[in-house]
Amino acid sequence: MADTRDSETARRSSGRTDQPLEDELVEEFQNTVQEGADRLHRTWRALIVTGLFGGIDVGLGIMAMLAVMDATGSKLLAGTAFGIGLLALRLAHSELFTEDFLLPINAVVAGHGSWWALLRLWVVTLVTNLVGGWAFMWVVVAAFPDFSATLLEVATGYVSDGFGTETVCLALLAGSTITLMTRMQQGTSSDMMTAVISLIGGFLVVGLGMLHGALNSIVIFGAMHAGWDYSYLEWLGWFAWVIPFNMLGGLVIISLPRLVRTWELLMAERRGEKISDAEPTDA
Hints:
Its main location: membrane. The chain crosses the membrane at residues 46-69, 121-143, 163-181, 193-215, 235-260. It is a multi-pass membrane protein. It contains twelve helices and no strands. The protein has helices at 2-14, 23-40, 44-72, 75-91, 103-109, 115-143, 148-159, 165-186, 191-205, 213-225, 232-261, 263-270. Helix 7 (148-159) crosses helix 10 (213-225). Residues 4-17 and 277-283 have low confidence and may be disordered.
């Protein structure tokens, strides 16, 4: 116990803040709580519009993915191209459902929002992502009919294997990867690094064929617009098990350990204690 107290004392005396954690974690914590609180307290109008544009931005990434896939046949290159959509999400301040598994939870635990507000954020963002993506993919299919065969191929790959160990793990990884990507982007103020992280995210999630409920659904909607014989009821059956595993991956694999890591800061914030500001750095 004495060793722990000595370590915390040394940490406080050597860093830029008086917290028993690395300065970069303190900075990131303050940023995530602030942004999470901002997301939780959006008006209904702002929440709906932000979610709709999130679906449109994903559709933009899918359009880039289809163009590269059609030209090269490479899933990895196509996935990297999809990163354009993830970059648009970040720079345009729109929102993808699985981005909300870290920042707003930090804000709720820190006492800056309610669990009801978190549920509202999740439900509205997910529904509006799907609506925005559905509408945008109608335009994409009408504009680029030559992509229809590629679109059907990609969409079929997402649903063909059904429910099993492999697909469950792919859904877990998709949720954790997007959540980790959000955490990484929160740790940098560099637009260049944000772009690199977005391309890496697209490479991993789309290039490796992970199952992401919102993202894959927008691809599936596009294939349905293009004439694929797949019903909305069939889609709903697939969607109903993918989304919970996306949530489990993002919440348990990434968000929970991060909460444990910054628990002292969360409790201090919840008690209303001042957390000393650290000098900004690019973590």
